[in-house]
């Protein structure tokens, strides 16, 4: 364990163990499973105006409240359940964000119907290849990109809510469409090897 603490990591994850685990095991790993993409879209849209650390701490609450991120179930949440969610302390109790999750589940399935999978759709915005920014330090880390701008515009046109360019760039980082681990981070090369 002592050796593990000596690993060089991206500095943003060093706040608490759950954050470190997320960085070490998930962040930047290329995702091709639709349910995982949907999970991150729910969490990232909930994050708007808040810290990712806050959302990570509520992740299990979201998993329980949002049917293990099953978009087919979320799309059919009745109004009575949405009202119930407003009093659930395990999630962010924001009516617009909760309603957006249901809306986005419906839009998500429309994208699946058109493209065969949401994964096919989103990976097309990076031509199916991981964008490697080769970051030396956090000061030159982008918050948006041309691809996230294009994705946000297209998703807005399709009726998605709470998913602007900054949020979607974070999604692209989290789900490995972009490798924004610092080149000095031990995960940089590991994640690079996971790209298709």
Characterization of the model:
The protein is mainly alpha-helical. The chain has helices spanning 2-5, 17-25, 34-47, 52-57, 59-65, 71-75, 79-85, 95-115, 118-123, 146-157, 165-174, 186-194, and strands at residues 131-132, 178-179. It has a two-stranded parallel sheet. The longest helix is centred in the middle third of the chain and has 21 residues, at 95-115. It holds the Pfam family Adenine_glyco. InterPro entries: Adenine_glyco, DNA-3mA_glycosylase, DNA_glycosylase. This is DNA-3-methyladenine glycosylase I.
What is the strand and helix layout of this fold?
Blueprint: H1 2-5, H2 17-25, H3 34-47, H4 52-57, H5 59-65, H6 71-75, H7 79-85, H8 95-115, H9 118-123, E1 131-132, H10 146-157, H11 165-174, E2 178-179, H12 186-194
Parallel strand pairs: 1-2
Name the descriptors.
DNA-3-methyladenine glycosylase I; DNA_glycosylase; mainly alpha; globular; two-stranded parallel ribbon; 196 residues; Endonuclease III, domain 1; Adenine_glyco; 2% strand
């Amino acid at each position: 364990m002592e050796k593990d603490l000596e690993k060089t990591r991206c500095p943003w994850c060093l706040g608490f163990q759950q954050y470190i685990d997320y960085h070490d095991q998930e962040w930047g790993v290329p995702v091709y499973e639709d349910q995982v993409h949907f999970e991150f879209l729910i969490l990232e849209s909930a994050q708007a105006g808040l810290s990712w650390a806050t959302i990570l701490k509520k992740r299990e609450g979201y998993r329980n409240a949002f049917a293990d991120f099953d978009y087919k179930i979320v799309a059919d949440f009745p109004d009575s359940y949405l009202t119930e969610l407003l009093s659930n302390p395990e999630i962010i109790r924001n009516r617009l964000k909760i309603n957006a999750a249901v809306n986005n589940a419906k839009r998500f399935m429309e994208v699946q119907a058109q493209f065969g999978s949401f994964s096919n759709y989103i990976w097309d915005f990076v031509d199916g290849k991981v964008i490697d920014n080769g970051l030396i330090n956090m000061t030159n880390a982008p918050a948006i990109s041309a691809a996230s701008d294009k994705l946000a515009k297209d998703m807005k046109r399709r009726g998605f809510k709470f998913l602007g360019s900054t949020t979607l760039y974070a999604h692209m980082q989290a789900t490995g469409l972009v490798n924004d681990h610092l080149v000095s981070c031990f995960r940089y090369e590991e994640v690079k090897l996971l790209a298709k």
